[in-house]
């Protein structure tokens, strides 16, 4: 698990060196014609940031104003029009240029904000406008000028680690301007602390080689490995309850299809420093499970300086085994390694980096990246990436990301902007899959480490040991991505007899892991899942009505579907280990969607794009294995004693989604769509 505060260097960089040369303040004049000030954004107190003093009045503020994009309210309808299987325009994906054009800020928004700035003393010579007109930079504005413009006061905040940042407690905009501006930088942001978590367990139950060899010799895992699943009726799940190998997944998910449109199909795995793979681990794994792949590597797609660094002396992260599985499941389809580089001086990553890379318009739309959460690029620090990957990468048809964070860790604006972008990728025909997390209904931290593992939210929306409101994960709670939950193979399971149940593993000392599931506190239920949710809420009303108080019954719910998350046999750092997590379920589902895309591309059709409206449709119900057994975990509570999470039931549920995929049937159904 990685957990760190994200500290932007932007302000410090901008402030140093300019202090001495700042011109004296000039009066910015309030213009009554734009109406009275209304508060635009307000920061909440954060224990790690101490307000120390007022900022000197003549410091230059690097002011950036993010303009509101137009037509965003129509995004859901546009997305449904091309991804609802009943829609006449199903599959008519948009070009990136059309996406950029339809959502660009209206020109009157741009004109009005410029006019307001000019009236306040910031004429054309002090203004820089981004290429797509989505944001406006104001040059040379002093603290006192910006304070008047935004009816605010800039303060210097000191972080517990000693860094000083500038922020204000709140700021305002005139009534007539507020509706045209999404946000202004720098204002309230530097107070925010982001807890980002990769919810992998690093070889948590590493098995010493000798022991494993023995288990492979006598046992079920080897027999399972030897299965040519799905062929000639010889598929079996023998050993899959102990250690999952590729043939287990092929048997569970009816994967007999061999791709043949590999030159026209694409599949990428978003990866963040310091996750990488080791070729020798891959080759050892391939040698056992997919000999034709020995010597094959993922295709490096470098983002913001990302490398395919394979330093045998350093520990590889979970992407090592993610590639072992993803490449094996889709062979001979190549898999892209969307490798996001190391920014600043720590293992910082942000989902916006790969989004910027695949959609250049996102780099600047709605004010662009937010340096509270995203690395500043180009990176001014020594050794930093001196560029910014904006639109440098063609989005693959399917992108799989095994990272997840807590929904509450981001600001409303940040979440909304990122979620809109996922919707835009859907419009472009890209399937985006994210892991639903490994701690049931309580956030995304691994159950094995981290002080806030398994915590829920209190009434204020803060994580708290005694809190009882479920803590949804991000971006699983965005309705425009597909969130993947976890299952496990039941003991002695056999094919055809409901072999899977909800992933839920209890370890010693109160540690646990289980498939993420829940309801957003910020995004409403999208139409495509309204019926599914209504049915589940009725089930809860009847069986466990008290639980209805623990979450937002009107929220977007996840996961959308699931796959095995338990006990992946893999080769990591030269040894063998067993790893679990929705980190493994996500690339498995991504591989399956990639194979569906292959079948569609072979048949002259488009890739499937945003799949949620389709997988919730009645026609597709028989293409999933409905998971009806088990439940995920709830809040941790005192001494690790947990209340329950969500039980699985017939149909969709917030523990297993619509179920696990049946590739053969999915291909049949998706080939029947235009
Ligand atoms: C694997 O399959 C081969 C060929 O069918 C067979 O000779 C061998 O005994 C099998 N190994 C195991 C562990 O089942
Ligand atoms: C959160 O709410 C509780 C009462 O519901 C209150 O005691 C506590 O001080 C609040 N915490 C913060 C950080 O506002
Ligand atoms: C949780 O509740 C217990 C018992 O009421 C109390 O001792 C403890 O301080 C509380 N912990 C937190 C983090 O609020
Ligand atoms: C699984 O099978 C083994 C061997 O046949 C048996 O000992 C064990 O009790 C079974 N476990 C379950 C949960 O049925
Ligand atoms: C790929 O396989 C499908 C059937 O599985 C076939 O219809 C199609 O023609 C093949 N395409 C190519 C390019 O070989
Ligand atoms: C697996 O997929 C094939 C089509 O490829 C289908 O005919 C078969 O019924 C499926 N098997 C199961 C168990 O659903």
TrEMBL record:
- InterPro entries linked: Peptidase_S8/S53_dom, Peptidase_S8/S53_dom_sf, Peptidase_S8_Ser-AS, S53_propep, Sedolisin_dom, Tripeptidyl-peptidase_I
Any single Pfam family the record assigns to this protein: Peptidase_S8
- CDD domains documented for this protein: Peptidases_S53 (cd04056), Pro-peptidase_S53 (cd11377)
Cite the EC number.
Answer: 3.4.14.10
Question: GO cellular component annotations, sorted alphabetically?
Answer: extracellular region
Cited SUPFAM superfamilies: Protease propeptides/inhibitors, Subtilisin-like
Say yes or no: keyword Calcium present: yes
Record's subcellular location: Secreted, Extracellular space
Q: Where is the signal peptide?
A: 1-27
Q: Could you identify this protein by its name?
A: tripeptidyl-peptidase II
Recorded source organism is Pholiota conissans
């Amino acid at each position: 698990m990685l957990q760190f505060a994200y500290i932007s260097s932007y302000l410090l960089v901008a402030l140093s060196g300019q202090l001495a040369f700042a011109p004296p303040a000039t009066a910015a004049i309030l213009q009554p014609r734009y109406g009275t000030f209304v508060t635009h954004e307000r920061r909440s107190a954060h224990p790690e940031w101490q307000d120390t003093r007022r900022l000197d009045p003549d410091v230059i503020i690097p002011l950036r104003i993010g303009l509101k994009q137009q037509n965003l309210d129509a995004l859901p309808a546009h997305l449904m029009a091309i991804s609802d299987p009943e829609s006449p325009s199903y599959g008519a994906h948009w070009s990136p240029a059309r996406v950029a054009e339809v959502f660009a800020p209206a020109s009157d928004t741009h004109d009005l904000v410029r006019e307001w700035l000019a009236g306040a003393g910031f004429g054309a010579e002090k203004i820089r406008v981004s290429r797509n007109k989505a944001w406006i930079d104001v040059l040379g504005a002093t603290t006192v000028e910006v304070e008047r413009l935004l009816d605010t006061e800039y303060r210097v905040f000191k972080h517990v680690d000693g860094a000083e940042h500038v922020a204000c407690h709140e700021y305002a905009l005139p009534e007539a301007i507020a509706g045209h501006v999404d946000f202004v930088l720098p204002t309230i942001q530097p107070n925010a602390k982001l807890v980002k978590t990769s919810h992998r367990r690093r070889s948590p139950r590493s098995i010493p080689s000798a022991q494993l060899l023995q288990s492979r010799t006598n046992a079920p895992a080897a027999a399972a490995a030897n299965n040519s699943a799905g062929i000639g009726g010889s598929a079996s799940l023998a050993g899959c309850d102990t250690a999952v190998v590729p043939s287990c997944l092929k048997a569970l998910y009816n994967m007999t299809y061999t791709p043949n449109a590999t030159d026209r199909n694409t599949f990428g795995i978003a990866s963040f420093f310091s996750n990488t793979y080791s070729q020798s681990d891959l080759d050892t794994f391939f040698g056992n499970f997919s000999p034709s792949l020995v010597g094959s590597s993922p295709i490096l797609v470098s983002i913001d300086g990302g490398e395919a660094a394979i330093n045998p002396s350093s520990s590889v992260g979970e992407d090592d085994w993610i590639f072992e599985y993803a490449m094996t499941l889709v062979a001979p389809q190549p898999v892209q390694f969307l490798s996001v580089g190391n920014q600043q001086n720590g293992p910082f990553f942000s989902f916006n980096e790969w989004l910027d890379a695949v959609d250049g318009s996102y780099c600047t739309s709605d004010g662009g990246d937010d340096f509270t959460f995203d690395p500043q690029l180009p990176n001014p620090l020594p050794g930093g990436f001196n560029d910014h990957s904006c639109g440098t990468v063609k989005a693959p048809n399917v992108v799989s990301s095994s990272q997840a964070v807590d929904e509450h860790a981001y600001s409303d604006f940040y979440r909304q902007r990122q979620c809109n972008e996922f919707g835009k990728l859907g419009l472009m025909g890209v399937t985006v899959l994210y892991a639903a997390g490994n701690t049931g209904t309580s956030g995304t931290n691994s159950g094995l480490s981290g002080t806030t593992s398994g915590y829920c939210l209190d009434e204020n929306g803060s994580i708290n040991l005694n809190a009882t409101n479920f803590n949804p994960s991000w971006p699983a709670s965005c309705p425009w991505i597909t969130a993947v939950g976890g299952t496990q193979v039941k003991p002695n399971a056999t094919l055809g007899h409901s072999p899977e149940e909800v992933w839920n593993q209890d370890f010693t000392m109160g540690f646990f892991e289980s498939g993420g599931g829940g309801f957003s506190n910020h995004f409403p239920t999208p139409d495509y899942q309204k019926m599914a949710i209504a049915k589940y809420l009725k089930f809860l009303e009847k069986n466990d009505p008290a639980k209805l108080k623990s979450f937002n019954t009107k929220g977007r719910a996840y996961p959308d579907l699931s796959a095995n998350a338990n006990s992946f046999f893999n080769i990591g750092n030269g040894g063998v280990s067993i790893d679990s997590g929705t980190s493994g379920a996500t690339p498995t589902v991504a591989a399956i969607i990639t194979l569906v895309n292959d079948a569609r591309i072979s048949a002259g059709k488009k890739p499937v794009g945003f799949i949620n409206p389709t997988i919730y449709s009645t026609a597709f119900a028989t293409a999933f294995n409905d998971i009806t057994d088990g439940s995920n975990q709830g809040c941790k509570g005192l001494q690790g004693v947990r209340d329950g999470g969500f039980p699985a039931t017939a149909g969709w549920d917030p523990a297993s989604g619509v179920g696990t995929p049946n590739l053969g049937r999915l291909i049949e159904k998706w080939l029947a769509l235009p």
